Amino acid sequence: MELTVLGQSQTTAPEAGGCASSGCGSNDDQLNHLPEHIRAKVHNHPCYSEEAHHHYARMHVAVAPACNIQCHYCNRKYDCSNESRPGVVSELLTPDQAVKKVMTVAANIPQMTVLGIAGPGDPLANPERTFDTFRQLTEKAPDIKLCVSTNGLALPELVDELCQHNIDHVTMTINCVDPDIGAQIYPWIFWKNRRVYGRKGAEILIKQQQKGLQMLVDRGILVKVNSVMIPGVNDKHLEEVSKAVKAKGAFLHNVMPLIAEAEHGTFYGVMGQRGPTHDELQELQDACSGDMNMMRHCRQCRADAVGMLGEDRGDEFTMDKIEAVDVDYAAAMVKRAEVHAAIEATLAAKQQKKNETFISLSSLSIPKKESRPVLMAIATSGGGIINQHFGHAREFLIYEANAHDVRFISHRKTDLYCSGDDTCGDGESVLQKTINALKGCEVVLCSKIGYEPWGMLEEAGIMPNGEHAMEAIEDAVAAVYKEMGEKGLLDKKPETKQRATA
Ligand SMILES: C[S@@+](CC[C@H](N)C(=O)[O-])C[C@H]1O[C@@H](n2cnc3c(N)ncnc32)[C@H](O)[C@@H]1O
Ligand code: SF4
Ligand code: SF4
């Protein structure tokens, strides 16, 4: 089966230089040449494969409270159960509790393939708790892949122990390779039993990160590098970071937007540091993609997230609900294997159909002047198909179509306007906020939509479309683009009527 990883092509082995075509970003390009052992590691990992994230789930367990550095954007003390952002958790777990939770979730959500430890602090600043969890899971649930997300400071000394577990993937957050920029992001690190401040601390951190990255690559671990895009601080620098980590052998780069709100109590939040706009983020991801595989579907999950990316079923599996549950994991593994086989069959059939029937946009003979890119927002609850009511969508996947290609570029979160509460206290309806969040999109594809949002979308210059319900997303996007071409709507981008939004 051919795979799409991260919505773009990996046409050479990652060791051999990654994405072959400059600026590649096509969902239609395939991973034909990826070596089998790499394909085996990414095909069912929802974060490493854009395609897989429509079908497979992940979970995080919050066993790692402490951190050995301070980032200006992180405050793990703030918790809101409705909030989905990194570092946030509802309950800290012991390793035993975490193992119990993972096995219960695995038995109930068989499409869950990956368990990550991503905080709320740094897993490698809590090595006993992290490795105890991994040791038990490697033994008791060998069909679950294990992952960590680390700042990398303690990585070199722990890399060998890490590799003893069922680990194929590691995420490292690298926001800079220049200590002067690092000094603006990290006020201090904790190193050899003392705090090291400013540039000096950043310099040590960067060295450790680069050393740890090399050690992981040498051991055959796939490394995803997370970078937080902080406008005015490291935004101009991240292309260089991308090149540097690519040169060392990192497999993916995940440039994520800074989340900074004053009420989180972070330095950046309090100082009014803004995050990037959708356009700024996409521009940077595109600029980095010439030389690197980019992850564009990261949902910046909580440190206790459970379920498909974009959903959080953590509330169903709190310790008070699962403590008494007995899991027959041998039986669960059989069921899990069946479910995984069914997903693989679905993916293979989808690929087959795509190979046979995908509308080749390049064959449409759309005149060049009419081949401008068009953004479309998709309401989906998973499976890679258009299967969600507009009013039920908590997020929209954003695809870009042009005359040659359809590609996934991002997702945008929205408040659920069908929640009964139609205003957000600032006088603006949630529906209006949703429409603002779709700024730049010209079409919304969903399974159904009510009269009121239909009218308001049209008024905002966004075409609602419910005609492609239950169709594969990329097929539908291509078909709508073709229709737009036939109706002469590709001549010129219409004036946007939406209000500005970040
Ligand atoms: C909470 S951290 C935990 C793992 C580890 N300590 C690390 O930093 O990689 C997980 C990811 O969330 C990111 N993160 C934390 N707070 C953030 C924020 N306010 N905005 C954007 N990303 C954030 C971190 O940079 C990291 O990539
Ligand atoms: S390294 Fe991770 S946990 Fe530590 S302060 Fe930074 S974001 Fe927070
Ligand atoms: S934070 Fe991003 S990389 Fe981590 S599990 Fe969520 S989607 Fe995957």
What is the fold's blueprint, element by element?
Layout: H1 36-42, E1 57-60, E2 69-70, H2 95-108, E3 112-117, H3 127-140, E4 145-150, H4 155-163, E5 167-173, H5 179-182, E6 188-191, E7 194-197, H6 198-218, E8 222-229, H7 238-248, E9 252-257, H8 267-271, H9 278-289, E10 306-307, H10 319-322, H11 329-357, E11 374-378, E12 395-401, E13 406-413, H12 430-437, E14 441-445, H13 451-459, E15 463-465, H14 473-486
Parallel strand pairs: 1-3, 3-4, 4-5, 5-8, 8-9, 11-14, 14-15
Antiparallel strand pairs: 1-10, 2-6, 6-7, 11-12, 12-13
Helix pairs in contact: 2-3, 2-11, 4-6
This protein binds S-adenosylmethionine and iron/sulfur cluster (SF4) (2 copies).
One iron/sulfur cluster binds next to β2.
Molecular structure report:
- This protein is 32% helix and 15% strand.
- With 502 residues, the protein is of the alpha/beta class.
- It has two domains: 35-318, TIM Barrel (Alpha-Beta Barrel), CATH 3.20.20; 359-486, Nucleotidyltransferase, domain 5, CATH 3.30.420.
- The strands form three sheets. Strands 9-8-5-4-3-1-10 form a seven-stranded mixed sheet. Strands 13-12-11-14-15 form a five-stranded mixed sheet.
- It has helices at residues 36-42, 95-108, 127-140, 155-163, 179-182, 198-218, 238-248, 267-271, 278-289, 319-322, 329-357, 430-437, 451-459, 473-486; strands at residues 57-60, 69-70, 112-117, 145-150, 167-173, 188-191, 194-197, 222-229, 252-257, 306-307, 374-378, 395-401, 406-413, 441-445, 463-465.
- Helix 2 runs parallel beside helix 3 (127-140).
- The structure holds S-adenosylmethionine (SAM) and iron/sulfur cluster (SF4) (2 copies).
